[in-house]
Amino acid sequence: MTLVWLILIPFIGGLLCWQAERFGDQAPRWIALGTMLLELALVLGLWVSSDFQLPAEGAASVWTLEWQADWIPRFGIQLHLAIDGLSLLMIALTGLLGAMAVVCSWKEIVRRVGFFHLNLLWILGGVVGVFLAIDLFLFFLFWEMMLVPMYFLIALWGHSGSQGSSRIGAATKFFIYTQASGLLMLIAILGLVFAHHGATGEYTFAYADLLNTPLSETTAWWLMLGFFVAFAVKLPVVPLHGWLPDAHAQAPTAGSVDLAGILLKTAAYGMLRFALPLFPEASQAFAPVAMTLGLIGIFYGAILACGQQDLKRLIAYTSISHMGFVLIGIYAGTELALQGVVALMVAHAFSAAGLFILSGQLYERLHTRDMRQMGGLWGRIRGLPGFALVFVAASLGLPGTANFVGEFMVMFGAFGVAPWVVVIASAGLILAAVYSLFIMQRVYYGPPVEETPLAGLDRRETILLFGIVALVVFFGVYPQPLLDTSAGAMQVVQQSVQQAAAMTGGVQ
Amino acid sequence: MSDVANHGVLTTLLAISPLILVCLTVIVVMLSIAWKRNHALSAILTAVGLNAALLALLFGWTLGSVDVTSVLVVDDLSRFGGVLVLMSTLACVTLAHHYLEGYEGPRDEFYLLLTSAAAGGLVLVSARHMTTLFFGIELLSMPLFGMLAYTFRDRGALESGIKYMVLSAAATAFLLFGMALLYAVTGTLDFAELGAALSARGSDPWLLAGAGLLLVGLAFKLSIVPFHLWTPDVYQGGPGPATTFLATASKVAVFLVLLRLFQSTLAFHENWWHDLLGFIAVITMLVGNLLALTQNDLKRLLGYSSIAHFGYLLVALVVNQGLAVETVGIYLVTYVLTTLGAFGVVTLVSSPYIATGGTADASPLHHYRGLFWRRPYLTAVMTVSMLSLAGIPFTAGFIGKFYIIGVGVEAHRWWLVGSVVVGSAIGLYYYLRVMVTLFLHEPGMQRRDATHDWAERAGGMVVLGVATLVILLGLYPTPMINWVNWVAG
Questions:
Q1: Which of A96, A169, A351, B14 stands 20 to 30 A from B33 (CA)?
Q2: What is its EC number (chain B) (predicted)?
Q3: For residue A507, is pLDDT > 50?
């Protein structure tokens, strides 16, 4: 039942926030914070009390914890939740970033506070559902469901943006991109289910049953593409990234934190959990294409980041660049690379969240995100630029930060499989240094626009930022807890990739 | 047909009793109006009659297939259709009661027309012969002219009524011509016998022409492209309750008779029919969704969206195997619930009726700006309806869309599945636009509100109930699936 509560807590908390608005603006905020901390405590408790080693060969279940109930027997659809090391890490991340999102919008959101927190918590609930569901129907439901509150978050509390692009436009674009690609995934899921029905005569959406569906090569290829496109839009992979810069630029800070920190991770999670294990041979054949797309993403994101004037757009493009590394790591398929992907996802969640929170704080003080109107802020704001330096350093992958661990492991792990990809990708690291230093130079150094000092960080902001910095450095120095937790789950993925490689190798 | 002998008079009467009760209701309400005009009394009598019919329908649930004369058959499918028609009619009665309170003219006759149209719907879902098909369609359509033009001092309503009348006349002409051709070749008007004749002499051009004309007539009623041109104007102009009936009960009944035709006439199983129908389905989805994009009028928008939805539904007819019948059933249930929710809110916001020169209803989208901050629960209903129309998970609409895509994937009709995806993606744009309008707050705009006590009125409760049902069926669709599965059996 713990797993059910993990999903229900945010939803119930959201409803409470909505109703608590009548007791004043503070009530929803505290309830939301309490909800997320409760969620976090629950996950951490699970983390401490569970063992994430792979069970011995032939054990009944590969999951640490499982819960299921009949739902739609007509199609063999079940409410089937399960957790392993990977999902646990992701849910812990969700809880943590959720709490941060609540804290960072404490002063930013002043209108319709209750409804805002309803949406915020429902996004998180949907995300937790995505990480827990292992019935494909249920997974799809959560996958699509989390779009609706995100849409509201951007459309109603977003900033009306620069250059005439409206927040409603950005929200709609986000929604249509992800929903349409999601429908492609639904088609692929149904194709898989009907293929399984044709082979065995029974309908099922259960992950474990569908894993062993016999598929012809072309069918597997098309179905794999259906999954890949849905995940690629969310990750995002260039050329399916069109929604991301707009959505980030217009979203409120909490929305950006959730979007970069968690929502992008659902895509990587989906690839690791579904796209690779369900279609190992097709994925193996697709790997060169995927890695090329990853490379394009690294360079495209980095180069466009260098040319941005809008701070949040810039950070959004750096996300595209980082996700290129994730994509390469996933399709390299070695255990080291896959573990690196996990570390990189966690690290990117922290560094991107930190940068977005900082740009939100700058916006609260300067009422602009245009970097041309910034400059010389080092002397004008107490405290904030120092934190910015740390996150920028993390973003460029400086050793000692968690990002370095992740990127290094991805590159190291992928080198044996695709050396040239790694060689080219490492050139992308230089571009990362370029755009990171651009941020520092344009925003914090140079001649100041005005001389008047701005409000320094208050206690809430300082604690929040300190927390993230501590995590970035801690996992940069000692990533072992992360890696231990996800090792079992990653071994499963790696084995399926290996088997596929062995089989295709055998055919040749 | 061997069943016929086994059924006694009582069984037959019980099977047809819903129709009899609805007709009785018409007469009782008419007499009551003749005796004394009382708006509340008329509404209550109508509601009681319809509920009795609904109960009778449930009592006859286990009878199986009963032939009532050689032109009507009461089977699971017609009971299924009957439930949908009667439920929508009941919802329209409750909405109409609130709506007509502000109308200065005679109010009671609306219920007469509504009930007669419901009787037409009941005949239609039981039809297994061309005569009953024709009779049902006319009985369904004629009262609708009156209902649509009921508030005839409004230009919009009058225009809507007249447009629908002209369209219906055209559709009837096609229908009759088609039937005449079929009869001329085969000498029969019974669906099953026609089907046999069609499969025996499927390539006879006169037969094909007859079947084609018949389909065109029905396509007019379902507003399938290219016979959809009347839809937006009629939807926009008609008074709320009448449009609600047109969008729900009327369309369901006509679609079910179309399904029955498809089931019994084997000629439609030939390939090129399916390709043609598939093409029509694709353009219906695309045209409906594309035209809805730029609408600034909620009722027009819903009109175009209903065109698109019937495009999706056609996918099931094109496939016509495997899950097809089940899909039609599920989709119709979800569509009716969702549409009742959406039009219910429109009607509630427009209630009570206010006389104006143009269109009286709160139909322009900007009337709904910021509705959430004034009527949160009513807006929640509208939001749920929009999400359900867009097919977002955890609403009933998603289950419908799931079935449509499923039936297409199962039959490997990739073009159709692709168009459903494209259509849904386009559709999202305008559904989201409506949704976000409800939540925006821009003071100084012209706007309308539902009355403060909307939730305590029957119409309000029905609308809230419908929205709850949409959510519940989205969360736990098993009862609906079991029911429809049993009907499709």
A1: B14
A2: 7.1.1.-
A3: no
Residue B419: predicted pLDDT: 94
DSSP string of B210-276, one letter each residue: HHHHHHHHHHHHHT-TTS-TTHHHHHHHS-HHHHHHIIIIIHHHHHHHHHHHHHH-GGGGSHHHHHH
The verdict on a CB contact (< 8 Å) between B387 and A148 is: yes
Mean pLDDT within A221-238:
92
The span from the CA of B69 to the CA of B279, in Å, is: 38
Backbone angles phi, psi at B107, to 5 degrees: -100, -30
Query: CB atoms < 10 A from the CB of A168, how many?
Result: 20
Tell me the whole-structure pTM to 2 decimals.
Answer: 0.92
Structural domain contains residue B414: yes
The answer to the question of residue B448 being in a domain is yes
Q: Is A68 left (phi over 0), alpha (psi -120 to 50) or beta?
A: beta
- Lookup: tokens for A31: 């309830």
Query: Cβ–Cβ of B425/A144 closer than 8 Å?
Result: no
| Number of other residues whose CB lies within 10 A of the CB of residue B414 | 13
C-beta atoms of B409 and A190 within 8 A: yes
For residue B392, the distance in angstroms to the closest alpha carbon of chain A comes to 7
Instruction: Tell whether B374 is covered by a domain.
Output: yes
CB B378 within 8 Å of CB B371: yes
What is the predicted pLDDT for the residue at B70? 87
Mutation target to probe the A interface, by most A beta carbons within 10 A, among B399, B414, B432 is B432
Q: Looking at beta carbons, which residues of chain A come within 8 Å of B387?
A: 148
C-alpha closest to that of A53 among A480, A503, A484, A501? A484
Alpha carbons B364 and B359: distance in angstroms, whole number: 10
Evaluate if residue A306 carries a pLDDT over 50: yes
B8-67 confidence digits (pLDDT tens) = 888 888 889 999 999 999 999 999 999 999 999 999 999 999 999 999 998 888 888 888
Residue pair A324/A297 in contact (Cβ under 8 Å)? The answer is: yes
Query: pLDDT digits over B130-149, tens only?
Result: 999 999 999 999 999 999 99
Question: Residue B367: what pLDDT?
Answer: 85
Asked if A75 contacts A205 with a C-beta cutoff of 8 angstroms, the reply is: yes
Q: How many domains does chain B have?
A: 1
Q: What is the DSSP letter of B68?
A: E
Chain A residue whose CA is closest to B376: A115
Report the distance separating Cα B105 and Cα B99, nearest Å. 13
> Across the interface, do A172 and B405 touch by the CB < 8 Å criterion?
no
Which residues, including other chains, have CB under 8 Å from residue B6's CB and lie 6 or more apart? Answer: none
How distant is the Cα of A170 from the closest Cα of chain B, in angstroms?
A: 12
Closest approach of A172 to chain B, Cα-based (Å): 7
Kindly state whether A151 is in contact with chain B, defined as any CB-CB distance less than 8 angstroms. Answer: yes
Which one-letter amino acid corresponds to residue A334? T
Q: Is the dihedral of CA A107, A111, A115, A120 positive or negative?
A: negative
Instruction: Find the domain containing B421 and state its range.
Output: 270-489
* Gap between the Cα atoms of B489 and B484, Å rounded: 8
Residues of B in CB contact (< 8 Å) with A are: 373, 387, 392-394, 398, 402, 405-406, 409-410, 417, 420-422, 424-425, 428-429, 432-433, 436, 439-440, 476-478, 481-482, 485
**Mean pLDDT, residues B311-331 taken together:** 90
pLDDT in tens, A422-453: 999 998 888 999 998 888 888 888 888 887 88
Q: Does A466 touch chain B (CB under 8 A)?
A: no
Give the mean pLDDT of chain B.
89
Res. A421: pLDDT tops 80: yes
Q: Is residue B384 assigned to a domain?
A: yes
Question: Which of B61, B66, B62 minimizes the C-alpha distance to B6?
Answer: B66
Q: Is the ipTM value over 0.85, yes or no?
A: yes
